[in-house]
Amino acid sequence: MVPKGEYATISADDTLGEAALALQVAQLREQELDPTRHRDRAILVIDDRNRVIGKLSMLDVLQGLLPRYERERGSDASLKAAARVGSARSLIASMEKDIGLWNKPLSNLIEKASTVTVRNLIREIAKGEAVDAEDSLDRALHQLIVGRFQSLLVTSKGDIIGILRLTDIYEEISKRLRAHNAEKAGAPRTR
């Protein structure tokens, strides 16, 4: 888990542009401090009492520039399903034609980022997006897979104390697989 104090945060009153910049700065700082650490792909949103009230991913930032995706074509689940079955290209073509999805140049979208606040984009944290600090890695892994999350908020006594990223769990499983294979082959364990 990455402790809350080591994870990038923004205020719900910040703009989308400020959020994107804060995430980029955090990624660069992480790379300088530890080149082996996976970069964060989200930023925690905090209220005026420093409590986490949500998270904003890179995809959320991009979707915030074009919020009509879900409003015009239904739920996020239906868009994901279209992508999985290979009909994403036809869906995109239909959206371009029907609603003029990309009728403004990218520069206009960048300008829009300075007017949209994070508060308008965050959603309530789902129960399945949190895991207790005392829960097993197995439980967290199942929650990530079933919920198709990139990360889980880690709680202790109801407070959010950190974030467990898919990359953290993957790295741990990879380490255990390497150790298992080395043991099986009779080679010394590597970390």
Give the SSE layout.
Blueprint (H helix, E strand, L loop, with lengths): L1 E2 L5 E3 L4 H18 L8 E5 L5 E6 H8 L2 H6 L2 H9 L3 H12 L6 H7 L17 E3 L4 H11 L3 E6 L2 E7 H20 L6
Parallel strand pairs: 2-3, 5-6
Antiparallel strand pairs: 1-7, 3-4, 6-7
Helix pairs in contact: 1-2
- Cα radius of gyration in angstroms: 19 Å
In percent, how helical is the residue content? 40-55%
**The first-level CATH class name of the largest domain:** Alpha Beta
DSSP summary, beta strand count: 7
The arrangement of helices and strands along the chain is EEHEEHHHHHEHEEH
Number of H- or I-type helical stretches: 8
How are the strands ordered across the major sheet?
1-7-6-5
Question: Could you describe the largest sheet, including whether it forms a barrel?
Answer: 4 strands, mixed
Number of individual domains: 2
**Estimated structural class:** alpha/beta
The end-to-end span amounts to 18 Å
What's the CATH superfamily of the largest domain, by name? CBS-domain
If you had to describe this structure to a student in words, what would you say it looks like?
It is a single chain. The protein has 191 residues and is of the alpha/beta class. The protein has two domains: 2-61 and 118-185, CBS-domain (Roll), CATH 3.10.580; 68-101, no CATH class. It is 48% helix and 17% strand. The protein is built from eight helices and seven strands. It has helices at 16-33, 58-65, 68-73, 76-84, 88-99, 106-112, 137-147, 166-185; strands at residues 2-3, 9-11, 42-46, 52-57, 130-132, 151-156, 159-165. Strand 6 (151-156) and strand 7 (159-165) form a beta hairpin. Helix 1 (16-33) runs antiparallel to helix 2 (58-65). The two termini are 18 Å apart.
